[in-house]
Structure formats: C-alpha cells, structure tokens
Write a structure and sequence with these properties.
alpha/beta; seven-stranded mixed sheet; seven-stranded antiparallel sheet; 16 helices; 27% helix; GMC family oxidoreductase N-terminal domain-containing protein; FAD
C-alpha cells in the first residue's frame, strides 16, 4: 500500500477513535490511519484534572461551538464544548466513570433488534478495557464486584483506569447524609446496572493525573506498531463515495487538509467516523449523505438520502441550584486569596491531591424525580463551589452547587450544516425543555433538591437557597427558572442513531454500518438511539469495543 492507502481510516482520535485504532491495529496485517483535526495532547492543562477550566473555551482544545438560541432556555444560547485534540472529549471532560443503567441497553436492543446490545453482553465489553482501582488487590474485592468489573481473570489490567478521588469535603459528606435522610440509599458503586444511590464518583484518573484515551489506547501500544499511522492537524472535508462493480454505493476514502495541503486518502476496507455527535453528522451532510432538502438547500449533490442524519439530538441539561452556607469550607473561600491558591497548588505538587485533582463534580446521586417514576431518572452532580456561569469567577461567599439533570429527556434537537463550506460551524439546536414531560421533571427535580437541603444533616451549615430562589414554587415558575439557569452537561448523542431496517430515521444498522453505503460506519455517541442514564464517555468506549469486534469479523 502507498502512504495514502490504508485498510482502515478512522476519522477522529477521541474517545471511540482511540480505542478503535488500538484494537484494529493489533492485527499486524492491517494498516490503520487515525485522523485528528486538533493538535497532540501535549498541553499541560489537559493532564491536570482541574485543567478542564482552561481547556473548555480554548481553541487549543475545544471546537468552540455555540447552540442556537433556544426557546426552552428563554432565548439563551449555550457554549457547547467538544474536544479538539488527541483524546477528544476525554481530554476536556469531567472524568466521571459511569456506565448508565442496564435498562438503557435493554432498550437499545429492543429498538434495534440486536441482542448484542443487551446489558449482559455490553457488560463484557465494559470489562474488557476497564482497570479498576479495587482490583489492584483482587483479594480485597468480592466475587460480585469482580463479576461486574473484573477482566483478565478478574485481576484488572485493562487500559481504561478507574480511580477513587483524592479528596473529600465536609459539605459534600453532609449532603450525602442529607440525601440518605431524604430516602436515597448510600452506594459505593454507581456501575452495577442500577445506579440508584448517593456517593462519591469514581474518576478516569491515574495517580492524580487525568487519564484520557490517548494515554490509555494510543501510547505506547499503537505508536509502537509499524502498521499504525497518526495524523494530527488533519481536517476531514468530505468522504469519497463511488459506485462499486456490484452496483452498490461504497465509501472509499476521505478528502482532508493537512499542513495547509489538500490530501486524499483511500481505505480498502472501511472508513469509520468517530468524530462525535456534532462533527460526524456534519461530515456526512457535507459528503451528500443526509436529509435531501437540507443538502439541496446548500448546493450539495445528494449521494444517499438519509433524513435521520443530524436529527434525534439528545443531551443532559443540568439545572444548577446554589446554596449559601456558613461554618464550613468551600472552594469559594479556600481559593479567595493568593495565599489560598498557593496552598492549593503546593498540595497538588506534593501529593497530587486537593482541589487541583478535582473532577468538576465530586459527589453524585441518582434518584427519582417523583414517587411514580419506575426507575431513577435524575442525576445530581454536587460541587463544593459556586459561580454565576461556567468560566466566570467563584462567588465571594461560601456556597455549594447542586446540579440536577433529567437522565431521559424526551426533547429532541438537531445538528445541521449551515453551508457547503466545511469551515462553517453547524447549527446546533438541542430544543431543551420543549416537551411537557421534560418541564415537569425540571420542576420536580428542583423540589427534590429542596427536600434534601432541608434535612438535619445540612442544618448546622444553615443552607440558604441563592438560586433559583425560594420565592419560586409553582410548576410553571420552576420550569421557567430552569430555562434561565440550566446549562448543558456536555452529553450530546443520537444524531446518527442506529435502528431497524424499517425505521426511516435510523442512519445506521444495529452494527453501526451506514444504511445503503458499504465500507462506512459511525462509531461514536451519535450512534446511540437513546441517551444513557449517566455520563456518556464510558458508554461510548463500550460501543467502540463492540464495533471493533464486528469490523474485524466483517473484514477477515
């Protein structure tokens, strides 16, 4: 093969793309090219956990997307971070290890007709790459834990490190006690298949450093293989499609810009899009694969009319309630002076612990927004800090934030190109809170926040509701206030969803192959038919693990 012809071309070196590159290049007879539009992950703030504050909104690591003004958010537009560097979103995200609930995957299997998506099956895929801290000494882990988290004869040893956090906060411990007093059980594992409970999140870190997918799956495994090629600064512009000798449409390569030069690369077996739930549908649409009317409006020849490309956008919207407190340390007070900031920096330098080792959220809880819910449908991210909006300074008073999100929103949005020019950002329209169900869950979830805040365990800190404010009580008031204060939790999925053959909006078949197009798959969060009940990074890794098996099987 030439320097521009490979067996597999993977577009996007993020969460899914890094794992796929690892698995596919393990076959020495297959040449793999991994393309990443962003730079290498050698920016120091990527690796320091609190560095997400400096990576989000930074063109060095973020695509800098914005949503369209949203009626559900009372006309507001939100920042929409997407990773633009090796490791993708795993280099800038919240580092929380969450699989979702077993029922999520049972639903996927029912939607697609593919039993491989059932919980019992995907559990094995999660286990295949997991390296859980409790299995550092397998004798200390029970058999049930090994069944859920073990790999390599239950001794751990996968690539994806899951660690415990390296700090605790009195205010968070008090919240956990209050949640239990409100009827939410304590848990030490959110990844059993039923994540109901309250406890500290486990994180994708190693020895106090962020553990992104570039470290886990690319270095050193892939970079030491002669059949693996990585190009950074390689911006895909268009997919190449041709009619084969069998009369079928086939994707045969990618046109891209690298170092300012136009380059065409060819794939003899498959092109795999792992560019994410925003960039993958954008690239498909630019290549003539998508809704016919949209493509024609922008002067793009229709190669394959697939109306579901860019549709079905789902996301978790977090409603950030803030409570002032007294008599307890929060980051607002600890980081309020140069001396305090110096102490925080020294603590991290000496022990890789303290506030600089923090994930954006440390404590979590899963429960029901109302007693009639059949399963936990809301998730809390609790933080020992507060601010007006992400990226703004901390408040000058001690406070903590209780963010709550609807795990299973019924609102659906879209991602659509705004031009035939790949340099123009797509229009991202999540349509948050656009259904009566989502507005009711928003109101109910704020009431759950208040119920927890009123429990005895927090009383000694005199919590005072600062946002949204106790004067707002009715369903209508609370839903409207949710629109004022809510923000994305950065979990877009569903824009290239898989489904059955008779589903007109399914872009992919149940094994992630693009409908009516040979040699092309989409393997990223866009393929999810419905959003998982928790953070979406690790489920995306699981999907890549499943896809790698299918790709290798189909190309033997």
């Amino acid at each position: 093969m030439s320097d521009t012809t490979f067996d597999y071309i993977i577009v996007g070196a993020g969460t899914a793309g890094s794992l796929l590159a690892n698995r596919l290049s393990a076959d020495a007879d297959r040449r793999v090219l991994l393309l990443e539009a962003g730079p290498r992950d050698n920016y120091h703030w990527i690796h320091i956990p609190v560095g997400y504050l400096y990576c989000i909104g930074n063109p060095r690591t973020d695509w800098l997307y914005q949503t369209e003004p949203d009626a559900g958010l009372n006309g507001r537009s939100l920042r929409y971070p997407r990773g633009r560097t090796l490791g993708g979103c795993s280099s800038i995200n919240g580092m929380l290890y969450l699989r979702g609930q077993a029922r999520d995957y049972e639903q996927w299997a029912d939607i697609t007709g593919e039993d491989a998506w059932r919980w019992a099956s995907v559990l094995q895929a999660f286990r295949r790459h997991e390296d859980h801290w409790r299995l550092d000494d397998p004798a200390q882990a029970g058999e049930d834990f090994k069944r859920l988290h073990g790999s390599k004869s239950t001794g751990g040893g996968g690539e994806w490190r899951v660690d415990r956090q390296r700090l605790r906060w009195d205010i968070l411990d008090a919240f956990a006690q209050a949640a239990q007093q409100a009827g939410i059980p304590a848990t030490d594992d959110f990844n059993r298949g039923d994540n109901e409970g309250v406890g500290y999140f486990e994180v994708n870190q190693k020895n106090g450093w962020r553990w992104n997918t570039a470290k886990a799956f690319l270095r050193p495994a892939c970079t030491s293989r002669s059949n693996f090629t990585l190009w950074t600064g390689a911006q895909a512009q268009r997919l190449i499609t041709e009619v084969g000798s069998d009369g079928r449409l086939r994707c045969t390569g990618v046109e891209l810009i690298r170092d300012g030069q136009a380059v065409t690369v060819r794939a003899t077996r498959e092109v795999i899009l792992s560019a994410g739930a925003v960039n993958s549908p954008q690239l498909l649409q630019l290549s003539g694969i998508g809704p016919q009317e949209l493509l024609q409006r922008h002067g793009i020849d229709v190669v394959q009319a697939l109306p579901g490309v860019g549709a079905n956008l789902q996301d978790h919207l977090q409603i950030r309630a803030v409570y002032k407190v007294q008599g307890v340390a929060t980051l607002n007070t600890l980081a309020s002076s140069l001396v305090g900031k110096a102490r925080i920096g020294l603590q991290y330098l000496l022990s890789r612990s303290g506030p600089m080792s923090m994930a954006p959220s440390q404590l979590g809880a899963f429960t029901r927004s109302s007693p009639g819910m059949a399963h936990p449908n809301i998730e809390f991210h609790v933080q020992p800090l507060s601010l007006e909006a992400f990226g703004e300074p901390l408040h000058d008073f001690p406070a903590f934030t209780i963010s709550v999100c609807n795990l299973n929103p019924t609102s659906r949005g879209s991602v659509q190109i705004t031009s035939g020019d790949w340099r123009q950002a797509p229009a991202i329209a999540p349509h948050y809170l656009s259904t009566p169900e989502d507005r009711q869950v928003a109101a109910d979830s704020l009431r759950v926040v208040r119920r927890i805040a009123q429990q005895p365990a927090l009383a000694r800190y005199r919590p005072e509701e600062y946002k949204p404010g106790p004067q707002y009580q009715s369903d209508e008031e609370l839903a409207r206030l949710a629109g004022d204060i809510a923000t994305t939790i950065f979990h877009p999925v569903g824009t290239t969803r898989m489904g059955r053959a008779n589903d007109p909006l399914a872009v992919l078949d149940p094994q992630l192959r693009v409908r009516g197009m040979a040699g092309l798959r989409v393997v990223d969060a866009g393929a999810m038919p419905t959003i998982t009940s928790g953070n979406t990074n690790s489920p995306t890794l699981m999907m890549a693990e499943m896809a790698a098996q299918w790709i290798r099987r189909d190309n033997t």
